[in-house]
Design a protein that fits this description.
- It is built from nine helices and 15 strands.
- The protein has 374 residues and is of the alpha+beta class.
- It folds into four domains: 96 residues, Helix Hairpins; 81 residues, Urease metallochaperone UreE, N-terminal domain (HSP40/DNAj peptide-binding domain, Sandwich), CATH 2.60.260.20; 76 residues, HSP40/DNAj peptide-binding domain (Sandwich), CATH 2.60.260; 36 residues.
- InterPro entries: DnaJ, DnaJ_C, DnaJ_domain, DnaJ_domain_CS, HSP40/DnaJ_pept-bd, HSP_DnaJ_Cys-rich_dom, HSP_DnaJ_Cys-rich_dom_sf, J_dom_sf.
- Homodimer.
- This is Chaperone protein DnaJ.
Amino acid sequence: MAKDYYAVLGLDKNASEDDIKKAFRKLALQYHPDKNPGDKAAEEKFKEINEAYQVLSDADRKAQYDQFGTTDFNGQGGFGGFDFGGGGFGGFEDIFETFFGGGFSNGRPNGPQRGADLQYTLNLTFEEAAFGVTKDIEIVRNEECKKCSGSGAKPGTNPQKCDKCNGTGQVKVQKRTAFGSFVTVSTCDKCGGKGTIIKEACPDCHGSGKVRRNRKITIKVPAGVDTGNTMPLRGEGEPGSKGGGNGDLYVNINILPHKIFRRDGYDVICEIPISFPQATLGAEIDVPTIDGLIKYTIPEGTQSGTIFRIKSKGIPKIRGYGRGDEIIKVIVEVPKKLNEKQKELLRQFAESCGEDVNEQRKSFFDKVKDAFGM
């Protein structure tokens, strides 16, 4: 059964020449093998799309197809003589090079190229991140060779104009394809697209025009940064080429662990141990904050695990006003080594409360009975 080439391109039979061309461009880009590596279905679809376009873009073949539903009268249907990968058509990359002006994989721009971006991980202490800090960091990057001023040529000599591309960095080749005759423009393989050839290379940069150097950069880290934040430093990346601008340096923030503080957003969390008498009777205790020690009153009867919030003792808010809070969680420490006198005093205390230290609290025992059906 003959293929419906209009359906392959998503068109109806009234489609104009411009409609056919637009549909082909869109579908060919979508299913091109370079965009779908290893996908056999996409490769077959790409072949089918090109087959349809070969017929519908040719006035004589299209007229024959519209009248008879095929261009092959050998009984096979479809476009029997189509050789996609062989000589005369040029394969996947040639079709895109001729039709769209360059391949997907191998094309290299000949104009100005922006330099590559760089990454740097900056470790900060808890306090440095909280209050901000000025840091000197050292990176390694390519920079213009001072000996040859970036030309790549040995001092006293100059790069010579490429005789193959006449200094343009590009070569033009006329090709005959199934689409017709096309002129393709590609990067000059002799000069690599530079337009010049270096006869004698600079001894410092070996003809590249760039050398690797350590560079110290001073950065100001704002207060309130956190792990995962990134500071972009514009123009501090690799240098561009052919007049292109420098890349950027991205400083990734990492906060080192603190001995007693944890962070939750802009809040600071701290666990503080207190004694049994302090929890029972209440007490004024020293509480560490990122600003230093402060006094805080624990009410009597405080239970282990109780949380208190101290306003505005947390992390300053980046790009904003105010600060988070400090959240303290008190942990009541039970004494482990008591002498006989201390134990006797606790027994007397328990008896005065009507408790027998050898029995569990009735309320808890009742919960156990309910849970286990006792």
